[in-house]
UniProtKB/TrEMBL annotation:
Residue intervals of the ABC transmembrane type-1 domain: 76-363
Bilayer-crossing regions: 75-95, 115-134, 190-211, 217-234, 306-334
UniProt biased composition (Basic and acidic residues): 661-672
Secretion signal span: none
Subcellular location: Cell membrane
Annotated GO MF terms: ATP binding
Superkingdom, taxonomy of origin: Bacteria
Protein's recorded name: ATP-binding cassette subfamily B protein
UniProt organism field: Streptomyces syringium
Pfam families referenced in this protein's UniProt entry, alphabetically: ABC_tran
Biased segments, Low complexity type: 1-15
Residue stretches making up the ABC transporter domain: 397-641
PANTHER family membership: ATP-BINDING CASSETTE SUB-FAMILY B, HAEMOLYSIN SECRETION ATP-BINDING PROTEIN
Length: 672
């Protein structure tokens, strides 16, 4: 199959189970979700109408609680206004009945009109009060809705930031995150629907009360009229929600493609490699798959509505025939029949509104359920709060037979770390070296408490790290990882974000920048410290990878933590900057700071107090630079080091006659 964009849409797609060609080519398989996030989700979709009706009050109650938290005054205002509106409708109907009674009575027309005036005044007053109540409700709802959405969004984000890293990386949890984010907007809309439901309920109760008084048979007939529409609306919303669940990841992948095309960081590659038309073609192809699903939903909804309309017509006919029968048999007077027609029309209208609103409420409730489910799941997977205090000035961190596997299957079935036992003495430079994928980053993530060992123990002065207060543990670390975050914020914040639990201190920001050699970088920016480091925003500025790395180092320094983890700190730095960084690391250690250094430049670990060498997730060698290179004479470290050294000396000997030998700086770097 050609992989050009043009063919992305032309290829006839197989069924959704196999995934479209775009899904298979770009994402390795179908993105449609079949089995449900867990059994609860499935159970919810398979709920009977009755069970669903029973669950609705609980969901409404949770939204009302949210509204109460968001703005209780607005909630009161909306509730009272809706009830008042319903009451005015009921009184209005009774007043209309009186007007008809007076007008259709016997006697001169002037007298009859005169007799109807008080009731007419009631009709006018109730209409006016009803209109005022409606506008008060609209104003209150408008105030309440955004606040409810904000409270729900905060609830969502609060839970998310407290879960274990492992949960964030888990595909199933991520899918729940995807769908639950609609719960906040769902809560907002639920407020509107709740309000409408209260209004429709009171209006319906008014009409139903009047109808029951006029004749008891009219009420069941009214209910019969609205039954088909309720069924149709409910069926359609369930189908829509089920489809939403199935297509959530597909939709995210489609958004990913379109977003990639407008982001600044991939923009150069998209242009030079001409990836744009390719991605656009697959975006179109993925969109066409979801459009086909939308068409299927629309067809199914149209069919259901058609059946419902036919049944409603039939029920309406039965109702009016019954009314005619009552009139013909003299059971009901003409004036009463007039009111009955009005009450039936008004009752049917409010019942239809009620059903539609309850249905919309149900649909939104499904999304709010996702949010609730996320909260439950996030609570289960939250980082534990509390624990034993971390030793104030620990002397030794020890890994005892630590094994760790990432969730899911690893391709070769081996853990990322197996049976690792090693020491990290405090106040020293400890280097972790090893080939790509040997487990160095995993080890420091375990050390920092981001993951928990599957087997074995990490001990701080003998104390099991699993029992220690995690928040306190995190506070002991500063980290410059390979993929440290480039915050799309100002230069100042990019450093100060290293320590947000204290007020920002300009002098410390300056000092951290000086330390990491980032002062010159900032001076060269158009607005200095206030320069926004994100292209695409007003005044946004772009800096180079090495300049970012200096800011990252400054951030870690600003954090001022007991243990500094530097994972490939100099990969993007020039030779001079690299030398400076290693010199600073050395100074830090002299000042008593613990530095955990991960690097592939083996000459740079010459000064480390202890070097641990990892291979395939196992600890293979430990010792000082001298011990590892001299004794034993053959080892992994020595081999790797020799390989790098040879490469360097080969480069030297390859220099052209008369040309200077490679930069002094590079030589020094090797000597470090
Ligand atoms: N988040 C993750 N989820 C699943 N597997 C992972 C994850 N991170 C790393 N791995 C796997 O764990 C193993 C060790 O990875 P790790 O990143 O610790 O190696 P490393 O020594 O730091 O490598 P490098 O020198 O390339 O940075 C690798 O096989 C990798 O594929």
């Amino acid at each position: 199959m050609s992989r050009r964009a043009g063919n992305a849409t032309a290829t006839a797609g197989p069924g959704p189970q196999e995934g479209s060609p775009s899904e298979r080519l770009l994402f390795g398989g179908p993105l449609l979700h079949d089995t449900g996030w867990n059994k609860h989700e499935r159970a919810y979709l398979e709920m009977s109408l009755w069970a669903m009706a029973l669950s609705l009050p609980r969901l409404v109650a949770s939204t009302v609680r949210l509204a109460w938290r968001a703005d209780r005054r607005a909630l009161w205002a909306v509730g009272c206004a809706e009830v008042l509106h319903g009451v005015t409708q009921a009184i209005g109907l009774v007043a209309v009945n009186d007007v008809l009674g007076a007008v259709l009575a016997t006697g001169p027309i002037a007298d009859r009109l005169h007799a109807s005036v008080p009731a007419l005044i009631w009709v006018a007053v109730t209409s006016l009060v009803g209109a005022l109540a409606m506008s008060a409700s609209t104003a209150g709802t408008g105030r309440l809705e955004p606040k409810v959405e904000r409270v729900a969004t905060e609830m969502y984000l609060e839970r998310v930031i407290r879960v274990e890293l492992e949960a964030i990386e888990d595909e199933n949890f991520h899918r729940l995150l995807d769908t639950a984010q609609y719960g906040a907007a769902g809560s907002r809309r639920m407020i509107r629907y709740c309000t409408a439901v209260v209004g429709a309920l009171v209006s319906f109760a008014a009409a139903a009360g009047v109808l029951t008084v006029l004749h008891p048979v009219l009420l069941p007939l009214l209910l019969l009229m609205t039954l088909p529409r309720s069924w149709a609306a409910l069926r359609n919303s369930r189908t829509r929600y089920e489809s939403f669940q199935r297509w959530a990841q597909h939709a995210r992948a489609g958004r990913l493609l379109s977003q990639t095309l407008i982001r600044t960081d991939p923009a150069p590659e998209i242009r030079v490699h001409d990836v744009g038309p390719f991605l656009l073609g697959h975006f179109r192809s993925m969109s066409e798959s979801s459009e086909a699903e939308q068409t299927r939903l629309a067809r199914s909804a149209a069919r259901t509505r058609l059946i419902a309309s036919a049944l409603t017509g039939l029920a309406t006919l039965v109702t009016y025939l019954a009314l005619g029968g009552l009139l013909l048999t003299g059971v009901m007077a003409l004036s009463v029949a007039g009111t009955a027609v009005l009450a039936t029309r008004s009752g049917a209208a409010s019942l239809t509104t009620l059903v539609l609103q309850v249905n919309s409420l149900y649909e939104e409730a499904c999304y709010v359920m996702d949010l609730e489910r996320l909260c439950v799941e996030a609570r289960k997977r939250a980082i534990p709060v509390g624990g034993l205090p971390v030793p104030e000035q620990p002397r030794l961190i020890r890994f005892e037979d630590v094994t760790f596997s990432y969730p899911g299957d690893s391709p070769d079935g081996r853990p990322a770390l197996s049976g690792v036992s090693l020491d990290i003495p405090m106040g020293k430079i400890v280097a972790l070296v090893g080939e790509n994928g040997s487990g160095k980053t995993t080890l420091v993530k375990l050390l920092a408490g981001l993951y928990q060992p599957g087997e074995g123990t990490i001990r701080w002065d003998g104390q099991d790290a699993g029992t220690l207060d995690r928040a306190e543990l995190f506070s002991r670390f500063a980290m410059v990882s390979q993929d440290f975050h480039r915050w799309p914020l100002t230069a100042r914040m990019n450093i100060a974000i290293g320590r947000t639990d204290r007020p920002l201190e300009e002098e410390r920001v300056e000092a951290a920048a000086r330390y990491a050699g980032a002062r010159k970088v900032v001076e060269g920016m158009p607005r200095g410290w206030d320069t926004l480091l994100s292209r695409g925003y007003k005044g946004g500025h772009q800096i180079s990878g090495g300049q970012w790395q200096k800011l990252g180092l400054a951030r870690a320094h600003y954090r001022d933590a007991q243990i500094l983890i530097v994972d490939e700190p100099t990969s993007a730095l020039d030779a001079r900057a690299e030398l400076e960084v290693f010199e600073q690391i050395r100074q830090l250690a002299q000042a008593g700071q613990t530095v955990l250094l991960i690097t592939h430049r083996l000459a740079s670990v010459r000064d480390a107090d202890l070097i641990h060498v990892l291979e395939n997730g196992r600890l293979r060698e430990s010792g000082t630079f001298r011990e590892l290179t001299d004794n034993p004479p053959v080892g992994i470290f020595r081999d790797l080091y020799e390989m790098q050294r040879r490469q360097f000396t080969d480069e030297q000997s390859a220099a052209l006659p008369g040309q200077r030998k490679p930069a002094d700086a590079a030589e020094k770097s090797l000597e470090l």
